[in-house]
Amino acid sequence: MITIDAMMVCLDLSELDDKLIAFSRSVCERLQVRKVYFVHNIKLYELADEFREMLGDLDLSQEVEGNIADLVAEQFGNITDHEILVSQEPNTEVILANLVRRYNIKLTLLGKTMSDKRTGAQGTKLLRILPCSVLVCPETASFNLRKVLVPIDFSDTSLHALRLSKALTDQLGLELEILHVYRLPTQFFPLISEEEAIRKAVEVVKGKFADLQRRHPEIAGVPYTLVRAANKTIAERIALHQEKGHHDLLVLGLRSMNALPALSLGSVAADVYNSDVGVPLWLVYPEEPARK
């Protein structure tokens, strides 16, 4: 049974909030979520001086909290314990990271507007700084989950995502597929034949899968697919395979925090997040947000 002790839902007072709150309800209906925090940070410094004067003595935090409370009542109801947190801090990413630590958040929900590059840029910053798993809900996402795709590269990070994917699909009765995208060392062509390189690459990867199945018998029956990157990036191949296979959820491993935040996300995870993938994307932080 997957249990999430605390989940954070990041709101920005846009039209996407309705869908994100409804999506959080869908998560709570499927998984055991003990508490949900709906959060918003007001950046007063972004307001024009004239607008600040118009506000006068108005308690903006109270007004925003009331607005969020109305949306939560409409889209979320009382499905589980929840709380609304509104802050006024200059740096949204830092305050959200602090909330994750303060309330021991295990999963953060982010909305993503496909056509808004600003939304994507801020989301990338959050992925780099938040010390928890992140579930991204694009505006085009459907709540009807049937098929899950988990790309792996055999690293501990991706195997961690695979374990969560298996637990999730077992619990909800979903289909799971494992994907591995491989590259060929093209700098050695034509010294070696491309056909032989492909044969050898597939042989090596199949050996890795066989070893993985021996070490983790619970995934022995999960189908896997090998795809060559060829003239595409790994993220592009993942997106193409997801679209072709009509998968409803993508699960990727998220690297843990380290001394260099710029290196903590992982290029593939960042590229997939910044792509036009229109299904929910679960980025799994190494500290497992689920318990079996």
From TrEMBL:
Superkingdom of the organism of origin: Bacteria
InterPro entries: UspA
Pfam families documented for this protein: Usp
UniProt domain UspA: residue ranges: 146-273
Protein name per Swiss-Prot or TrEMBL: Nucleotide-binding universal stress protein, UspA family
Native species: Pontibacter indicus
Lineage: Bacteria, Pseudomonadati, Bacteroidota, Cytophagia, Cytophagales
